[in-house]
Each structure stands twice: as structure tokens, then as C-alpha cells.
Inverse folding.
């Protein structure tokens, strides 16, 4: 695949397929002894991470490509923004812990060299697709008005 693989090369190599909330996804591990697992996901400007939450804790891991900008809004309505990537000097971190019950959305950082972000997520507990709660950013701001400034700053970039 060379030094800088294209998004299509990554998609083909990992067998990624469209997912309703997380761009393109492939399950990489399902735990047998304790519920949980891991998956790869690729976000692009065309397919970001849609705003959603699950009941389980999870950890994002950055593997390749541009940073992922992530909006988190906790169950208590506390909002924050993060960059998951490899440029530690710029404040990025290669992992991001997302507590269960936290709404989160993500997008590829603009003006990147790759045009995509390849990450993974590890989850403890089985995620049942019918229990994934999705919401629009505007509606989230109505539910958590104290988080509105951070939500608007994320939505305006």
C-alpha cells in the first residue's frame, strides 16, 4: 500500500463497510470470555461519525491518517472537544476515553494530508444496534442548553 495509503486501499485491506453511525467499519475482535470487542472505523469528510451514544464505555485509538475532531456531551450535559491523532506537541492524543452514556460525534480535521482518519474503538459490553441512541446536534443543544456554546463551535467548523 505504500507510505501513504489511499482511503480506498485502507477500505479494501481491512474490509470496511458502511455503518449507520461510524463511517466505514469492520469488526476486528469479539471477546468470548467477557462481553466486548474492537473494531476499525474510517471517517472521511463525506462519512463522519454521526452524533450518537451507547451505554458502554469505549476507547478510540488513532492508527493512521488525519486527526479526528470529536465532540463529547456527557449524560450530565458537560460538553468538550478533543482531537484524536498522533501530533502530541499540538495537543492531540492517540486515545480518547468515551464514558458510557456520552453523546459523541466526530469528523476528520480539515486540511489534512490524507483526507481520512483510520481509528479503532474498544468496547466493554455488547453493543446492541437497536439501543444506539442517535440525535441531531440542534436537538442535543435543546436537551443540554449549557453545552450549546461547545456544540455550536463544533458545528460551525
Amino acid at each position: 500500500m505504500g507510505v501513504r495509503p489511499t482511503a480506498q486501499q485502507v477500505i479494501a485491506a481491512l474490509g470496511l463497510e458502511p455503518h449507520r453511525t461510524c463511517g466505514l467499519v469492520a469488526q476486528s475482535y469479539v471477546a468470548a470470555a467477557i462481553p466486548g470487542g474492537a473494531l476499525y472505523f474510517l471517517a472521511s469528510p463525506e462519512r463522519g461519525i454521526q452524533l450518537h451514544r451507547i451505554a458502554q464505555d469505549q476507547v478510540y485509538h488513532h492508527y493512521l491518517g488525519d486527526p479526528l475532531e470529536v465532540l463529547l456531551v456527557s449524560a450530565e450535559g458537560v460538553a468538550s472537544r478533543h482531537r484524536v491523532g498522533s501530533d502530541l506537541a499540538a495537543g492531540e492524543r492517540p486515545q480518547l476515553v468515551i464514558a458510557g452514556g456520552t453523546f459523541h460525534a466526530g469528523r476528520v480535521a480539515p486540511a489534512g494530508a490524507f483526507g481520512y482518519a483510520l481509528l479503532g474503538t474498544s468496547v466493554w459490553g455488547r453493543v446492541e444496534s437497536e439501543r444506539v441512541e442517535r440525535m441531531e446536534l440542534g436537538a442535543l443543544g435543546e436537551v443540554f442548553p449549557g453545552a450549546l456554546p461547545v456544540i455550536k463551535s463544533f458545528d460551525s467548523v
Observations:
- The domain at 7-155 is CATH 2.60.120.10 (Jelly Rolls).
- The CA atoms of residues 5 and 84 lie 19 Å apart.
